[in-house]
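Can anyone check this?
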Amino acid sequence: MEKELYDQMDWAAIEEIVYSESAEPKNILGPHMTDSGMLVQAYLPGAEKAAVKLTSTEKEYPMELADESGFFAVVIPGKRKRAYVLAVDYGDGQIVETADPYSFGSIYKEADLKKFAAGIYYDVYKKMGAHRITLDGVEGVSFSVWAPCAMRVSVVGDFNKWDGRCHQMNCIGDSGVFELFIPGLSEGTVYKYEIKTRRAEPMLKADPYANYAELRPNTASIVWDIDKFVWSDEKWMTQRRKITKKEPMSIYELHLGSWMRKSLEVTEDGKEIVGSEFYNYREIAPKLADYVKEMGYTHVELLPVMEHPLDASWGYQVTGYYAPTSRYGTPDDFKYFMDYMHGQGIGVILDWVPAHFPRDSHGLAAFDGTHVYEHADP
C-alpha cells in the first residue's frame, strides 16, 4: 500500500468495521474529502478485487486491499466529491457494479429525530422499517430501526448471503435510530436485522416496522410497497365522517382464521386426507359481507390481524404491528378486504394489542439485548 494512502487509514476504526462492531460505519466507509482528494473506503467481504468507477467519465480507480477480510480503499485526486459506483469482482468472473450504500445522506431531518425522542412522531412508520425510495436518482430500499442499546445493527438477507458484516447500519447521533439505504433492492426482498448486543452477542430479529412477513414457520420480514393499491372507498370514508353518536351500531366480532375455512379432501397414495386451510383476504371478504348484511350488523370487529407466530394465540402475541398476517395473503389482499367491506357499507374495527410480547427469538422481546419494547418484569 502506498504510504500516502496508508497514512490516511484509521486502523482502529477499520478494525471496528472488520469485526462488525461499529455503530457509525459512515464515519469511515463511503467518500470522505482529504487534502489528497476523495478517499473512498468499502468493506466487501468475499471480494477479490474492487474499483471506484466515476459515473461522469466512467474512469476506474483500482482500490487497494487494506485488510484481507475485504476492506478496500483508494484516493481519487480532486477537490470535491464525485458520483461513483463500486465495481466489485467476487472471483466468479463477473464484475458487479453498485452504488455505494455509504455515499447517501440520511432520510431523517433533525426535526424528525426530535419528534421521535419526544414520543410525538405519530407517523414515524412512514420512515421506520423498509421503504422503496429513490435517493439521488438511485432506486433502492431505505431501512431504519430503533435499537438504542445495540452495539451494531446490520441488514441481512439473501442479497448478502445473510452476512452481518456486509451492510452495517449507521446510528444517527445519540438517537438510537439506525439506518441504511441499499441500492438495487426491490419489492419482495426478504430480510432481517442482525443485532449485536453490548455483550457482543449477535441476534436475528424481524423488523418491528415491516409491512409484510414470511408465512410461519418462517420469520423474516419482506419489503413491500404499500402505496400501490388503488382504493375505491371514497363514498364510505366521506359518509363515515357524518356518522353521529345517536346512530345505532351492531358489531360482529370474529377471528378470520376460524370463522370459515376451506375444506380439503385430497387422495394421496390411496389415502384420503381431510383437513382445512385458511381463506385469502380476498376470498373471505364477500362471504363475510353477505353474512353480516343478512344478520343486520353494521360493523365487523376482527381479532388482531397483526403478524404473530402462533395460530393458537388468535393474533394476540404480536411480532409485527404494521404487518397484516401473511396467513391470509399479502398487504394488498388485506387492503382489498377493507375496501370491499367499505364498499358494502360495513365498517371494520381492528383489535389492537399493545403489550403481548411472545418470547420468540425473532420478535420484539429483548430486541436490542435490553427491554426496549416490553417491561423488564414479565
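Reply from J.R.: I decoded it. The first strand starts at residue 30 and ends at 34.
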